[in-house]
Amino acid sequence: MKGWCDVNRLGFLILSVLSAGGAVGRASAMTVREIMAAESWPYKYDTVFKKAVEFETAGYVSAGHKDGRARTFYITEKGRKVLKDDK
């Protein structure tokens, strides 16, 4: 189903960090390394990056401005709704 993906523990962590970090628009977007630096992650970089890209496809996050060669991500309204609905 297009526009949907599994929001597991890693997904909630990514959305939570983006929200708490103020990554709510293209200019304030965060790299995966910045996302990972905000928490003590039991996940590898590639795993977090793949989930962020999956979330971009599903509409929970969007791509921000590039930081050098690194892609950046910010939380969308759809992603904020997922966090709100979980509380």
Please give a structural write-up:
Helices cover 48% and strands 10% of the residues. It has 87 residues and is mainly alpha-helical. It is globular. The mean pLDDT is 90.
Concise structural overview:
With 87 residues, this protein is mainly alpha-helical.
Number of helices: 4
The appropriate CATH architecture of the domain at 30-86 is Orthogonal Bundle
Cα-to-Cα separation, first versus last residue? 25 Å
Instruction: Name the CATH superfamily classification of the domain at 30-86.
Output: Winged helix-like DNA-binding domain superfamily/Winged helix DNA-binding domain
- CATH class category of the domain at 30-86: Mainly Alpha
Return the structural class: mainly alpha
Rg from Cα: 12 Å
With strands numbered from the N-terminus, the spatial order across the biggest sheet is: 1-3-2
Topology of helices and strands:
Blueprint: H1 9-20, E1 30-31, H2 32-37, H3 45-58, E2 61-63, E3 72-75, H4 77-86
Antiparallel strand pairs: 1-3, 2-3
Task: List the main descriptive attributes of the protein structure presented here.
87 residues; globular; Arc Repressor Mutant, subunit A; 3-stranded antiparallel beta sheet; 48% helix; mainly alpha
